[in-house]
Every structure is written in structure tokens, then in C-alpha cells.
Amino acid sequence: MLGVGILSGCSSSGNNSADNTAATGTNNTSTNAGSNEGSSDKPVTLKAIFMKQAGYSEEATQEATDEFMKLNPTIKVEPTFVAYESLEQKIITGGSSYDVVLIDAPWTAKFAEAGIIKNVSDKLPAEERSDIFQGALDSVTYKNELYGMPWLNDTRYLFYNKEMLQKAGFDAPPATWDELLAQAKVLKEKGIVDYPLVATWKQSEALVCDVTSITESFGGHLVKDGNITINDPANVDAINFMAQSIKDGLTNPNSLEYLEDDVTGVFSSGKAAFALNWTYMFNAANNDTEKSQVVGKVGIALSPGTSKAVSATVNGGMGLAVTKGSKNADAAWKYIQFLADKDFQKKYAKDALPIWKSLYEDQDVVATNPELVNLAKTQYNYLVNRAIVPWYGEFSTEAQVAVSEALNGSKTAQSALDELQKKATDISQES
After folding, report:
1. Residue ranges under compositional bias (Low complexity) (predicted)?
2. Which residues contact 250 (CB under 8 A, 6 or more apart)?
3. Which residue, of 78, 100, 404, 409, is most buried by count of CB atoms within 10 Å of its CB?
4. Angle at 154 between CA 20 and CA 119, to 5 degrees
5. Contact present, 399 and 211 (Cβ < 8 Å)
6. Does 113 fall in a domain?
7. DSSP codes joined into one string, 62-89
């Protein structure tokens, strides 16, 4: 999941003829589904659940839903919007009361194994999949089968203060973690900023997101193809890097208590040169004149890499899925097609960047935020998913504790990851 909020506002691009095409599912997404209820005179009612606080706004989703119903008068859609923190449990307890559900990437395996969502592998042709970023497809894939349609696209980037870097004598942001540390040391030594880097390393899912990115950039994997490799040397190196940056005073020690909005606040107040955060921070820090003191000074770059990886950044994307218990599965897929269609994603590109590669060449989409759009189409090639396992929830909870112990110095990275390796193995065997 993306953090809290994204770029706000709605684009006015798109037109009725495009939306009509999208509603019939004949433009950019498959017509394999929707052939029964979508064209039948028999009225059906769909219940859909979304989240409130991020990605496409509630207003945009409702507006598109109203347009879909206008174009498909026999299909009524009743959307519900809940906080992200409540979304997973609502889906689990709601069962077949929903037809369409918004799922976060780490839930796909669990929901597929539990029989909550339908396998829709035959609904999306290969030629259309090839135009979707692989990381977005991975977010709704389990055991090489597709269990939803990618919808929201988000990931973390490296944000930097252009003015601070210039004062320190740097004309470009760091491309690797080693370069970031080198620049951070100069920034600190010259008294430009006390703690150059700020991050969301509170014991929470936000921490797991950064751990996923950083371990992958060091050439490691927490779980690879179902195999638990937590205490792999590359992962130990990655956690040691994080812990040492705090000990050296290069990462703000309060990062151990920070979530996304905290990081945005610190960076926006001019108290950090670097930050790791979701897409939304670019708009918040660089354009919000009421809340940010660094407007016009914010740069955005690829999440740093190492000699083993150009970059690696966590997949914050989410997909739309049809529940296995839906009695109106064809109509539900048709609704999903409409929301995931290129015309919809172009129209609301300011809310969330598209899943479709080809839209990153569309001038209307690029115009919404040229620097971000042009960077995103490269960064999306380096998306990595959090562990794709049915027992992810339990694993994440244990991982948060273990890494926090390594970062606060109560345990070494090696011992923390050794213990996590054992706990994850036990969890997987009990599942």
C-alpha cells in the first residue's frame, strides 16, 4: 500500500465517446468477461469496496461509477469506502457480500488460497498484459495465475533537496546507497543539515516496505519463490547498512518512530536532504506553499541501488478483484474493466499514475507532472513485491519486530534475522 494520500485533483481529459468505448470493454481491456450480465436486460446490483485515503479519490471513483451505470443501465453499483486499515478485514468478514474488492499486493496469495477471489487468468490477453508494468501484474498474481486487474500504481522514490545538494557541491543525486552515505557525510560535516536522511522506519508495515526495497537492492530476498531466505548475507548487509546510518548520525534517529506523513513533514520543513517516501510527497513538499518550506527545491530520483542492482523499490500497487462468491461475476469484471481502462486512467492521472506503459508517452498524462511521470516509467521497471505468501500478515508482524531490534541496537542484524528465519519457517509450516 502507498502511504497516506497521493497527488490530488482530477484531470479533465477524456471524452464521452472514449468512455462509451471503455464501458463496453472493447477498447483496451479484454471482452472475455461481461458477455452475460453486461448485455442482459436483467438488472443486477454490484457491491464494491474501496479505500478512502489514497490513490483515486472517492469522488473520482464515484464519478466514474456513475458514468458506468449511465452507460450500463441494467447494472447498479453500490461502492463502499473504508480506511485502508479496515479494508482487509472487511473483505475477509464480508465474504460474498461484495462482488468487487480492492486488494493490496500482500493479500493476493492469502485471498487466493482462502478462495476469496476468483482466478481471472483467462480474462486478460497477452497483448494487453505486455502493456502493463510487470510489477503491477505481480501484485495480483499468485503461483503464475492472475487473481485481479492491476489498478493503482504507486511506489517509493528517493526525494532530495536540490538546494542543499548544491551547497554541498553535488550536481546530481546519489544513484547508489554508498553515494548517498558519502553525500550525507559531506552535508553533515558542512553543517548544512543535522540528519541528512529521514525514513519511515517505525515498527510498522512502512518499515517492511523499506526493508523489502533495500534488501533487494543489496541483492537479497526475504522470500524467493516460496523459499525463506531471510538470514541470507545480502539481507544482513542491508540491515547493517540501515542500522549503521543511524549510529553515524546520517539517518535521523527519530525515523524509528516515523511514518509517511512524519517524513513528509520533516523533509518539507527543510530538516532533511534525503527522504524515502511514496509518490504523494512530491506534490506535498514541492507545491504546497502553505505547509512546505522547500517549495521548488524538491528533486525526485530512482530509489538507490548497489553494484548488484541499479535500483529496487517496493510495489505499492493495488488491484481490483472479483470475489469467488459473487453471483454477478461477469458484470463485476465489466465494471473492473471500465475502472482499469486507459481512458479512465488517463482522465484521472493526477490522482494516480497509470498501470499502462503506453500512457507514459501520452502528452496529456505527461503534462500532469513531467518530472514524476518521466521518472516513474523507469522506476516501475524496478518494482519488487513484499513476500508473496499466504502467511504474509504473520510474517510482516514478526519482521517488524526483528528489524526494529536490529535498528535500535538491541540485537545484531545477524541474530535478529536468524531468529526471524526460524519464526518465518514455523509460521509457514503452521499455515
Report:
1. 15-38
2. 181, 184, 185, 188, 195, 196, 197
3. 100
4. 65
5. yes
6. yes
7. HHHHHHHHHHSTTEEEEEEEE-HHHHHH
Nearest of 77, 68, 20, 66 to residue 43 by alpha carbon: 77
Helix (H, G, I), strand (E, B) or coil at 377: helix
Half-sphere exposure of 337 (CA within 13 A, CB side): 30
Q: How many CA atoms lie within 13 A of 388 on its CB side?
A: 21
The HSE-up count of residue 229 (CA atoms within 13 Å, CB side) is: 17
Angle at 252 (CA atoms; ends 248, 256), nearest 5 degrees:
105
User: Does one domain contain both 163 and 291?
Assistant: yes
Q: At 350, which amino acid appears?
A: K
Q: Which three cell numbers stand for residue 71?
A: 452507460
Structural domain span for residue 215: 156-314+391-430
State residue 129 phi and psi, 5-degree precision: -60, -35
* Distance, CA of 151 to CA of 148 (rounded, Å): 9
3-state secondary structure 333-361: HHHHHHHHCHHHHHHCCCCCECCEHHHHH
CATH of the domain at 403: 3.40.190.10
What's the total number of domains in the chain? 2
pTM higher than 0.85 for the full model? no
Rounded Cα distance between 201 and 192, Å, is 23
Same-domain check for residues 424 and 283: yes
pLDDT averages per 10-residue partition of the chain, 431 residues:
35 33 39 41 93 80 96 97 90 90 94 96 93 91 95 93 98 98 98 98 95 98 92 98 98 97 96 95 91 97 97 93 96 96 90 91 93 92 91 95 98 98 95 75
Instruction: State the cell numbers at 282.
Output: 512530491
